[in-house]
Amino acid sequence: MDNHSSVTEFFLLGFPGSQELHYILFTTFFVLYSVSLLGNTTIIMIVCADKRLRSPMYFFLGHLSILEILLTTIIVPVMLWGLLIPGMQTIPSNGCIAQLFLYLSLGTTELVLLGAMAVDRYVAVCNPLRYSTIMSSHTCIWVVAVAWVFGFLSEIWPVYATFQSTFCKSNLIDHFYCDRGQLLKLSCDDPHFIHIILFVRAVFIIVGSLITTIVSYTYIISTILKIPSGSGRRKAFSTCASHFTFVVIGYGSCLFLFVKPKQTQAAEYNRIASLMVSVVTPFLNPFIFTLRNDKVKEALRDGVKRCCQLLHD
Hints:
The chain is mostly helical. The protein is globular and about 65 Å long. The protein has helices at 19-49, 56-84, 93-126, 131-134, 137-153, 156-163, 180-185, 192-225, 230-256, 266-291, 294-312; strands spanning 9-12, 89-92, 172-173. Helices cover 75% and strands 3% of the residues.
């Protein structure tokens, strides 16, 4: 019998506070989740439908929007249901395993994709004459496929190791989803070794992607500053502004998870950090890539016009 088989279900404690506060949180998160789904789905549709957006940048953006939809959908519906029901929320152990695996896999895939998008912007700004050759459709498909495969394969062992622990202390998870850190706190085994392995691995993935982004933007900024005209500098920077903004928010949220607060504040801190990753970032993504991108705004306006014409006809 496996070690984790003695625990058939877990109880999510969710958010503290009164039921009235839970209703307010439910309304807030439901609105944010709905806007996230609508906005990211709109981006995917216009990227697929508009010929002006048939470039590597928007190909990556479409996959980023898919990741945001999946990432927030893994967490938010369970969280919303927990806010509606009184008391603790029950989740079966297999459901907990699936949720944690998908959440971590999608997050890893997104980090790899953000690094790839930074390299794409570097080639576009620093080597524009060879851009179409270097960032060919074959290359883009290969990069995206590697990101997805790496994201999912890299999380098999960490999730397996987490659930091979003996959960004998309790089956109460002080979170609104199956958080790995909270699960390891329930283990009676010595968690220090697995903590070290998981930390080193997470740092390798995050820092590896971050270094790629930093190096790319260092060259990008250096190249932009050499452009003599102000309008040329603004145009070059505008092609990177949306991705750079999203990178700052995305990596900031991830690094936020690695700061260790006092033990008495850890549960509340983890909830806030997780909300940044699973709710706030997916919500902001459509606004970042539409409000700061003229091509996307034009494609969106044209799409709305075509829809209105179809309705009138």
